[in-house]
């Protein structure tokens, strides 16, 4: 029989030796002062005069195990310890019906409300076993439809990177509560509340990117303190010169002070100062860059707003901003510049504890209603196996800029729908009237805007008395009429609509200008598509945001509409060395004979690559290395900071579908992430309908052309 002792008040000095022996010496964890005070009060309350007993030591063992299972890092802080103790108590209360105490210290929630808790059991089921019990049961069937969903930024759980723990905090949203608060508080109060939330988000936007990329670099074997290879050595290594490899480590800018003339490798945000000089800024300081002799890593774009690795020599006497106070001063003479290498999706997910970033697996939660934020590897393997059995599943992504006010586009749509309807009928007949897993029945049709050729504005049309909004609605009514003629498409396919720059309500102030695009862009208002919504079965019309994510079992697909290639080319920095090298190549080519030019073309295989492929690879490598769909400064983009996380592509998704009408179709795979671009649905020069079919079971894309 368990003996219950009365609570007593202990001092942190009483618990410190025991905590050091179990948490630090045995488990390699470090506990700070706040956490030790919380732990002291908890042990005094739970165990009383038996605080030196085996039971209290087992309790500390359990705390250490849970802390490690949740990947909270090496330092135990007060807030994290409160959450761990709360999780342990809630687990214990779900497994026991024995007597319990209430109102313990550690059950204070983030909202400041106090909840009742239960005492810790002697034979408590460990957190890991309990958490995985509902995920790893092989006898529980998995319905693939539960894991095929479209996730817009407003429904996506908020994920914030904690620089201290080097882990993500996942916060699930409750849109119903948000709507109730907005109605109760009024429109003005809700606007003020949003502005207050955006203020810290604006400050932390670039900080979060910096700390996340720094964490990724710390795991890269090329940037470890003892085995780091410099950028110049990496380039030499690729060319076969291995004797120039030397060891360095990434230094903070403030650490260069007083070390004039020494060579450093630094990492930070590239921007311009008031004197129009390029600067690099990290968490400690900023410094002016001299790029006159800089060699850049090839196959990448370099724009202000990107986080870059810069190698060079620090000079305390250089620079044009030495008169500024509170700043290191001097100039950094850059010899090499490059991007932080990206990391494969599987590696990142393992490091961050296989978190559920899209909130798809909450249905695995126990009957208690707890929201699971992690997915076991065993469960992920089951999802992958199911994917391979569903090899006939496919998604169709129609080309971008589906102008519904263009008769040529409407003609192409009719041809496309007719072909798709016939293929569905053939598939049904082949399966003897059963839908089964027919190869010609797509799970969803993804249509990406803009859905009108001219931006929707508040002014009236100059030709008729019909307002632009009425005209916009009539375009979707026509689209509904066309779709209604194909009953199998209506009954069997989801239709997903993603807005473009000319669609409401963004177009009312941006007027279709790409520089005024506001990301993420909210969905098309349902007032314009009510007829289409009535036509399709419930749930078959998905009005999504831009960008949006599609979860298919274990895969994460990102669909994004923007003229990325144009933005990158327009803001790409031209280094002085680029011009110099180009002039040298032209001079060398002029001195060669025709035979030497032919031999040079044969030896240099890279010259055989078409320019379009090189540009596509540059785009893909740039955005994946930066880990963001909009790696620019604030003057080049407009971001809704409340949903800033929706533009982050870290960890890398499985697939990224870009809808860039300014560039051709392409498919590029980099670090296991497949990136595809789909150009305009109909070209201006011909009558060719452009779309792509994706088979997630085999991760295969097929580009299709349909002449009409």
Automatic annotation (TrEMBL):
Ranges for domain DNA polymerase alpha/delta/epsilon subunit B: 398-662
Protein location: Nucleus
Gene Ontology BP terms: DNA-templated DNA replication; error-prone translesion synthesis
GO MF entry, a single one: DNA binding
Keyword Nucleus tagged: yes
InterPro entries: DNA_pol_a/d/e_bsu, POLE2
Keyword DNA-binding: yes
GO CC annotations, alphabetized: epsilon DNA polymerase complex
Alphabetic keyword roster: DNA replication, DNA-binding, Nucleus
Region (Disordered): 108-127
Listed transmembrane segments: none
Assigned protein family: Belongs to the DNA polymerase epsilon subunit B family.
PANTHER family: DNA POLYMERASE EPSILON SUBUNIT 2, DNA POLYMERASE EPSILON SUBUNIT B
Protein name (Swiss-Prot/TrEMBL): DNA polymerase epsilon subunit B
Organism: Candida albicans (strain WO-1) (Yeast)
